[in-house]
């Protein structure tokens, strides 16, 4: 990535925030992470708590330019929904696709969530 992208992606100033989010991840995020880590989804590498600008994404795959968000009850309020909308618009303006799942979807149908993620992958990455 060029010098300009370092100001947007995984900024050092957001490091502590990302670390705290990783260390206090809700059970649904932990469950999905176990399915994503180690290139288990079509060989693609996903990152946890990846920052884009001032926003931190639950999961991000740079090769696919794909953000995954797991929404729990904290996303239900009007203020939270507006924040989520602004964050998604900012991220999508950078050419990153967004997929959202609820905690309940991850807990009840992890295989379906992984299948939905797989459906976005064009082909395995080059070796």
Mean pLDDT: 84
Any idea of the CATH class? Alpha Beta
Portion of residues within helices: 25-40%
Tell me the count of domains. Answer: 1
Topology:
Layout: H1 15-23, H2 27-36, E1 47-52, E2 55-61, E3 66-71, H3 78-93, E4 97-102, H4 103-108, H5 110-118
Parallel strand pairs: 3-4
Antiparallel strand pairs: 1-2, 2-3
Explain briefly what this protein structure is.
The chain has 127 residues and is of the alpha+beta class. Helix content is 39%, strand content 20%.
Fold and architecture overview:
Helices cover 39% and strands 20% of the residues. It is of the alpha+beta class and 127 residues long. The protein has a single domain (3-118), classed as Endonuclease, Chain A, CATH 3.40.960.10. It has a 4-stranded mixed sheet, sandwiched between helices. The longest helix has 16 residues, at 78-93. The radius of gyration is 14 Å and the shape is globular. The relative contact order is 0.16. The model is unreliable at 1-6 (pLDDT under 50).
Give short descriptive properties of this protein.
127 residues, alpha+beta, Endonuclease, Chain A, four-stranded mixed beta sheet, 4 strands, 39% helix, globular
């Amino acid at each position: 990535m060029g010098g300009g992208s370092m100001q947007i992606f995984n900024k050092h100033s957001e490091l502590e925030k990302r670390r705290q989010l990783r260390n206090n991840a809700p059970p649904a995020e932990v469950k999905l992470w176990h399915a994503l880590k180690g290139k288990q989804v079509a060989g693609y590498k996903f990152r946890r708590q990846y920052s884009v600008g001032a926003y931190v994404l639950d999961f991000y795959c740079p090769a696919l330019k794909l953000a995954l968000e797991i929404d729990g009850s904290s996303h239900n309020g009007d203020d939270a929904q507006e924040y989520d909308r602004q964050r998604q618009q900012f991220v999508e303006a950078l050419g990153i696709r967004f997929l959202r799942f609820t905690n309940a979807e991850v807990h009840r149908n992890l295989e379906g969530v992984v299948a939905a993620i797989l459906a976005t992958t064009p082909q395995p990455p080059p070796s």
